[in-house]
Design a protein that fits this description.
Blueprint lengths: L1 H9 L39 E7 L3 H17 L3 E7 L3 H14 L5 E5 L3 H6 L7 H6 L16 E2 L2 E2 L1 E7 L1 E6 H6 L8 H10 L2 E3 L2 E8 L4 H10 L13 H4 L2 H14 L3 E2 L6 H10 L3 E7 L3 H7 L4 E4 L12 E7 L6 H13 L1 H11 L6 H4 L2 H9 L1 H8 L13 H16 L5 H18 L2
Helix pairs in contact: 1-3, 2-14, 13-14, 16-17, 18-19
Family: Belongs to the bacterial solute-binding protein 1 family.
Pfam families: SBP_bac_8
Organism: Paenibacillus agricola
Length: about 450
């Protein structure tokens, strides 16, 4: 175990990087949360109780929902005290987990952003949850399969879903209706509608058609919609570039950008910028996380609808957010599992957390529950997000994911902001990425 923890600590892949999946993405769109200004002090455990430590990334309102969830567990389990501690954003939690694993002080249970799971799984510091599921008469078949892509590594079930999201299309239907336009379902329809919504204002634009935060999440979606993947099956090359899909995706976006149909925001605070523009009616269509649905429902003054991301050749979308895991170093594994099992199965656990926060239901039983059905009947926009999971695809499993995505975001900036040649930029990125891929073999 000490050797494995040292291996994690020695890895430089994760330090100082965005996790790439937040609805606050770690950038702005993939399921994370905006951290609170400072982490609250952990509540001390009460005497005579078995204590387990739970690290998480839920700040702000979602942090309050997390505290309430932990309190519900503690109140219903008199012999257990879960101590929940906010540890910052997804990437900050990962850095702290690296340090804690190396020092032998990892928490019993932790939230772990899904694209980082493989690093810890390969280091063999996560507990295999398979025997615990069997003991509790549970099966992976009971989980929503579109959210299980980052749960099993090396034939071990090491994480289970909790706060999960996907990108989705948000639509100002009032705006479309005024122009006799239908909600687009394909790239071609999206191009037509986005261009039709443009209103020029001198040398600028009073209104544009489409926007999305600066985040690779949406590019990943477009790659899979074109029947391609980021990495090839062997994880040795960039499949989407070799297949010509990278050129196709960026050419499509640059064409929309050239006519004003696409507003591509600055990298800094891009999620908040485009959400504000959508709310104010300055754009008609927005690609953003499912995690923004609740905010739009409260704030927009128009007929607001959600829809699947438009397809190119097929419908497809990546997932985002975080799972929960148990560390193999825990001295209270049965107790830690009691907490995890409660999160997965008790209506007052993960299900109430999903209802409170807007994340996706992650078990089939949860989806069929009276509470979720009533929620979807009241807020059908949220059901669209769940229904889209049938097209969920995860293609970013690789130990070199984090440094490669840094390189990819640099390529995105060069193409979308600096108008650099698409093929030349992608070729440069491919060379750098494949060097990194060789480095993890």
């Amino acid at each position: 175990m000490k050797k494995n923890a040292t291996m994690i600590m020695a890895s430089t892949m994760l330090l100082g990087v965005l996790a790439g999946c937040s609805s606050a993405p770690q950038s702005t769109s993939t399921g994370g949360t905006t951290p609170s200004p400072a982490a609250p002090a952990a509540t001390p455990a009460k005497a005579g109780k078995t204590t387990i430590q739970y690290w998480h990334s839920m700040g702000g309102a979602n942090g309050e929902f997390t505290d309430a969830m932990i309190k519900r567990f503690n109140d219903s389990h008199p012999n257990i005290e879960v101590v929940g501690t906010f540890q910052g954003s997804y990437d900050e939690v990962v850095t702290k987990l690296q340090q804690a694993a190396a020092a032998g002080s990892a928490p019993d249970v932790s939230m772990l952003e899904r694209s980082f799971v493989q690093l810890f799984a390969d280091a063999d510091v996560l507990e295999d949850l398979t025997p615990y599921l069997k003991k509790s008469n549970l099966s992976t078949d009971g989980f929503v399969q579109g959210l299980m892509g980052h749960s099993t590594f090396n034939k071990k079930l090491v994480t289970l879903p909790l706060n999960r999201s996907t990108p989705i299309m948000h639509v100002n239907k009032t705006m479309l209706d005024e122009m006799g336009l239908k909600i687009p379902t394909t790239w071609e329809e999206l191009k037509t509608v986005s261009n039709a919504l443009v209103i020029k204002d001198g040398s600028g634009y009073k209104r544009q058609g489409l926007s999305m935060p600066f985040d690779d999440w949406y590019i990943q979606a477009m790659i899979t919609q074109s029947k391609s993947r980021f990495f090839n099956e062997a994880g040795t090359t960039m499949e989407f570039i070799d297949a010509g899909v990278g050129n196709k995706v960026f050419s499509y976006l640059k064409d929309l950008q050239s006519t004003g149909a696409l507003f591509y925001p600055p990298t800094q605070d891009s999620g908040n910028i485009v959400k504000q523009m959508f709310t104010e009616g300055k754009i008609g269509i927005l690609f953003e996380s499912t995690g923004t649905i609740g905010g739009f429902l409260k704030n927009v003054k128009f007929d607001y609808k959600t829809a699947f991301l438009p397809k190119n050749e097929v419908f497809a979308n990546p997932t985002g957010g975080a799972n929960v895991t148990m560390f193999a170093s825990s001295k209270n594994k049965d107790t830690a599992w009691e907490f995890l099992n409660w999160l997965m199965t008790d209506p007052q656990g993960g299900q109430q957390f999903v209802i409170d926060t807007g994340y996706l239901p992650f078990t089939k039983k949860m989806v069929e529950s009276k509470e979720i059905k009533e929620l979807y009947a009241k807020e059908p926009n949220r059901q669209v997000a769940y229904d889209q999971l049938q097209y969920g695809i995860d293609t970013n499993k690789n130990l070199a994911w984090t440094p490669i995505i840094q390189e990819f975001r640099s390529a995105m900036q060069a193409i979308m902001y600096d108008n650099k040649d698409i093929n030349a930029t992608l070729t440069t990125f491919k060379t750098a990425a494949e060097k990194l891929l060789k480095g993890v073999k």
